[in-house]
Structure to design on (86 residues):
C-alpha cells in the first residue's frame, strides 16, 4: 500500500509540472484585473532575463503607470515596476 501511495503522489507531482499550459493574453489580463485596480494600457510579449513574459502595463487609481511581468509558461508574477514620470 505504501508503494501505491508513493506512486500516486509521484504521478500527481509529475503531472502538475508536465501539464502546465502557457498562460494566454486573456488570462494574464484577467489576473491583473483581479489583483490590481486600474486601466490596462498595453499587453505585449517580450523576453525578460531570458524568460518569455507577458508585460502588462496599467494606469492605477493614483495615476501611476505600472508594469507587471508574468511568465508565459507558468503565469507567475515575476516582477513589477512603477514607470518613472517626467
Amino acid at each position: 500500500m505504501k508503494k501505491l501511495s508513493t506512486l500516486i503522489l509521484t504521478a500527481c507531482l509529475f503531472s502538475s509540472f508536465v501539464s502546465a499550459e502557457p498562460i494566454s493574453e486573456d488570462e494574464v489580463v484577467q489576473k491583473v484585473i483581479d489583483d490590481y485596480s486600474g486601466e490596462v494600457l498595453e499587453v505585449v510579449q517580450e523576453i525578460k532575463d531570458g524568460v518569455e513574459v507577458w508585460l502588462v502595463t496599467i494606469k492605477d487609481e493614483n495615476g501611476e503607470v505600472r508594469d507587471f511581468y508574468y511568465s508565459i509558461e507558468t503565469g507567475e508574477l515575476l516582477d513589477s515596476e512603477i514607470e518613472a514620470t517626467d
In short: Residues 9-19 have pLDDT under 50 and may be disordered. The chain has one domain: 21-82. The longest helix spans residues 2-18.
